[in-house]
Design goal:
The protein is mainly alpha-helical. It is built from 14 helices and 3 strands. The longest helix has 20 residues, at about 20-40.
């Protein structure tokens, strides 16, 4: 049955244009599902029923997988069975009546505007690493880029005069994102005085470089954010994605429309962006409870 996994991954690559990381996640999830079916003695998808799928999801719970991971596994299994039907490998979808595990509706963490200012100020010096770190943090908050998109930026991707950058998102889809004046100024300072010294070979195409002159990695940038957060006195756990969440939330709080935020974030589906409307409502509720005399 594992032969169908290769066919499915090729379908996702060609028809859906999914990114490599996404394909790897599907490969893990469906590979585990197919191994389960084979262990249970299944040799045909026509004989797989809803109880078999439910038993598989139950086995994931017993193995200690979180509700979120089990929900993702079920989502992958549903898409796999839809693929089997589309390609006429099977006529019945046993996942259609299986309910997804409740994930608790956990909302992503965001920083307040004051905390963002504190974080940016923590890299406010004139040392080369501070100038570089400030440019990265300013650009991340100004654009809502993913960490992987930020460290992959090349010099040619940024138009300083126009105040825009071009990034390659999930599914190899390009999008044009405005950067704002604060980020542009920080980037001008970095490229003028710091980056030339870091680029010892003089031919690196990447915008952000490490102290040794190599391309900045996601892990190294993660460590930079944690270091600057400690310096800012921010005790909550934050990551590069926290600034992406904060970017979207603050835009919506200040009147941006959902569709514009979706485009800037590079979300394929508007429903993915709608999570930030829940965040803004929750923040308003907390503000009301804290301030209103009868809250």
């Amino acid at each position: 049955m594992n032969h169908y996994l290769d066919l499915f991954l090729n379908y996702l690559l060609v028809e859906k244009g999914l990114a490599r990381n996404t394909l790897e996640a599907y490969s893990r999830d469906i590979g585990r599902y197919l191994n389960h079916l084979e262990q249970e003695g299944h040799d045909s998808f026509e004989r797989v029923g809803s109880l078999d799928v439910a038993a598989y999801i139950g086995s994931l719970k017993e193995s200690g997988l979180s509700p979120r991971s089990r929900a993702r596994a079920l989502s992958a299994t549903r898409m796999f069975h839809r693929f089997l039907i589309i390609e006429n490998y099977c006529e019945v979808n046993p996942t259609s009546i299986i309910e997804a595990p409740k994930t608790g509706g956990k909302l992503p963490k965001v920083l307040s505007t004051r905390e963002v200012e504190q974080l940016l100020a923590a890299a406010g010096g004139e040392a080369p690493n501070e100038v570089r770190d400030r440019a990265m943090l300013e650009l991340l908050y100004a654009t809502g880029l993913r960490a992987s998109e930020l460290v992959a930026l090349r010099i040619r991707d940024v138009n300083m005069e126009a105040g825009f950058l071009l990034t390659m998102g999930k599914g190899e889809k390009e999008r044009l994102v405005p950067m704002g004046e604060s980020a542009r100024s920080a980037l001008v300072a970095y490229t003028a005085s710091v980056r030339p010294a870091l680029d010892r070979s003089g031919d690196s195409p990447y915008l952000f470089l490490s102290r040794l002159g190599g391309r900045m990695t996601r892990q190294a940038f993660w460590n930079i954010i944690k270091k600057r957060a400690r310096g800012a006195g921010i005790c909550k756990s934050i990551s590069p994605h926290t600034l992406r969440h904060s970017f979207a939330t603050h835009l919506l709080e200040n009147g941006a429309d959902l569709r514009s935020v979706q485009i800037m974030l590079g979300h394929a589906d508007l429903s993915t962006t709608q999570i930030y409307t829940h965040i803004t409502r929750e923040r308003l509720k907390r503000l009301h409870q804290e301030i209103h005399p009868r809250g």
